[in-house]
Give the backbone structure.
Amino acid sequence: MSRRFTGGRLVLATHNAGKVREIAELLAPFAVDVVSAGSLGLPEPEETGTTFRANAELKAHAAAAAANLPALADDSGLVVDALGGAPGIYSARWAGPTKDFAVAMQRVEQELHDAQKPTARFVCALSLAWPDGVCDTFEGTVEGTLTFPPRGTQGFGYDPIFIPTGHAITFGEMAPDKKHAMSHRAHAFHQLVAACFGK
């Protein structure tokens, strides 16, 4: 049985402005006072886990303990079948120290060596942790294919090269509300809301 979040302040355990914006938009209907780990000056813990779930839980626990508040962490990334699951949990690291996802998308393209319509999925693990150590984690995925060159300026990260199954445009070309309705983060978030927010 998951613990209910009954309102008040919630720390988003990320320094990624795109994730803060997207998760804050998803949380908007629940009157949650959202604050980011970055704005609180919390350090980013080293992501030593070997799965999205492990890294999400690690980040959530670290932020909850540091802020003494409930903390929500996301660990997500792009899993490309032809690359043996890479970049996977290293998705952000492929963007380098400056978090330049144009570089990361270029690397994906180079490593694919002209593979035709490579299949891929976005995976998201969302962990809600409390200062006393309780933690619940929910996972979501969305399947699709990759396209090059990147298309669109919406979203963030690898969105401009990812076409979700059943669609003709990339997440980078898709209106935010449409993406929110189907994304890996949305799938995980719906589970989180049902279990912890009671709506």
Observations:
- The radius of gyration is 16 Å.
